Amino acid sequence: MSATSPADAQRNRTRQHHRPATRLVGISLAYFMVLLDTTVLAVAEPSIMTSLHTGVVGVGWTTTVYTMALAAALVFAGSLADRLGAYRVFLAGVTGFGAASLACAFAPTIALLLVFRAVLGLFAAAIIPSSLALIAGLYPEPGSRGRAISAWAAISGVAMAAGPVLGGWLIAVDDWRAVFVINVPIALVALLLCRTPIAIARRARTLSWLPHLGLAATLAIATLAVTQAGQQRWVPAVLCGLAAFGLGYGTTLIDRASPAPIVPAELRRNGAVWRAFGWGAAVNYALTTVIFSIPLVLHTTAAGAGASLLPMTLLVALNPLITGRLVGAYGPLRPIRMGFVAFPIGLALIAVATTTGDQPFVLGLGLLLCGFGVSWTLPALVGFAVNQAGTAAAGSVGGILNATRQVGATIAAAVSSVTVTHHDAGDSGAVPFLIAAIVCALGLITAVVPRLSRANRMSIPASPVRRTGKSERGAR
């Protein structure tokens, strides 16, 4: 029989779509592992500080280098998956993530842990975009594909809820190294479930690594400037700040001239899309501030810190289903505004609770409102951005939105580590939460002001001089 016979082609198609649910579970487990790594590490911070003889700033860098590498490599990894094949990039990402997790678990010093955490972020960046491409290949029909992506995305909520609790239990059994070891069996199961190749058409996309390298360098030096300022080393802080500004400006110029830019030309002047990117950074800034700071300012056990975060993390896992209905009924802007109302109030309550002492009810209410803030805002952001940019740019929008979210997380980890250090020195533990509340209040203003401006313009009566047919058409 000929190798290109219709029968062989049919067998290949049958093999491709045989039991896709098994491989969907494997793909989702890989995504679960990536997201679990961020939340589970939060409760391990005090244990890392004791074991590796480092301070709050040092343990802050373990979060910063991970999110920094993830932010810088996400869009590049999507292009790499298109060019080399999503299945190959996915397998490399999962294998590398498991190996780098094991290296983190056995890191003898904080310096080596930071190196391995950066590598971990790079492999995480390989997993996220390739996972979406594999799901699209497994489920070619739009209806089944939408349900599969929803199931894949729901894993993020489960990881958010499970991470602090699982981390607290693992640290109680062993120490911080266990939170990295747990990734190894998860990676092996994901590889086992996805052992059957998933055929995805490749696209000959141009790869341009220089803008992504510039983004990583800009984030690293900007973070260093924040930490130096927090330690009141003003000369290095100013020099690092100027260097970060120059690198950022240079990266922007390089990106515009690049054959494969991070930001496509059609999105550069789209103000509504850039507002969505800013909202994503603001939400992740606030979320990372809470997850990073709570275990450090409460001075409790890892299990206690994990339990304290449950009011927020459980809502992040469950409430997106209701948010989807809100988006369907009212559009994405209403839940975004609701989230940016809930977030500052919740952060302010957390600030009160951490300042005045043992107030579990106030703390729980603040965390609950922060959970509403995350779960109302984030699910609606992608829909809003895609609506403003058009479906043709959906892939670029999704990649940049995820990258800007990680930028927000990177800055939050740096600022929180500095402000929590001052809390240990006797200053108020409310500072990181109040800064995050201001960031979210600015998000609310940018979500409301454009609509108020339009309403004001519509309420101004037309001038008699302009009451011509041409003028009226122009006004409309």
UniProtKB/TrEMBL annotation:
Which domain of life does the UniProt lineage start with?
A: Bacteria
Recorded GO molecular functions are: transmembrane transporter activity
This protein's UniProt keywords = Membrane, Transmembrane, Transmembrane helix, Transport
Q: Please list every transmembrane segment annotated in the UniProt record, as residue ranges.
A: 21-44, 56-77, 89-114, 120-139, 151-172, 178-194, 206-228, 234-255, 276-298, 304-324, 336-355, 361-386, 429-449
Please give the chief subcellular localization of this protein: membrane
Checking InterPro entries in the record gives:
MFS, MFS_dom, MFS_trans_sf
Cell compartments where the protein resides: Cell membrane
The UniProt record lists the Major facilitator superfamily (MFS) profile domain at 23-455
Its protein name is MFS transporter
Tell me the organism. Answer: Amycolatopsis balhimycina DSM 5908
